[in-house]
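Sanity check

After download, print the first record. It should look like this:
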Amino acid sequence: MGLSCMRACYISLTDEWADKIAEAEDGEERMSLIEHIMEEKLCPVYEMDKWWEELHLLLTGKSASEPLEGYPLSEAIVGVHVVEAENDCYIGATGYDELAPIIDELKQAPLDTLQEQYRGPERHDNTWMAAMVAEIDRLIAFYEQSQSEQKDILVSIY
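Expected structure tokens:
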């Protein structure tokens, strides 16, 4: 995934929409369905915009182009399962029953230590770190709501 200028959207899917996306013929149809869901507000959506790559790097020490399978902090950003990974599109998914360890790891992430390890140009900027913490808090709240409603998460990066 060379996706640094792309945005990430997280959708809390109803079973009906999850089935439609799974049955899509190809990536183009899948993206069309995802955009329709978002535009019509048919399911809850959390838009992280362009912070996702920085957040993945902060939480894992690795670029999101190298997702870490079985590592909840990576899976929090890119999903547990890869649905599609084409040139300009990445779609991941996480079942509601897979959210608990992800939520726990996000809540326990040692952000101060991670910030010191992070080697980005803004690593000492308190405003930047406050923005990262706010993104994590919003993602946790979104995941907790989805988990309580037994809705799966679809991650769309495009």
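If your output differs, re-run the checksum step. Summary of this record's structure: The chain has one domain: 8-157.
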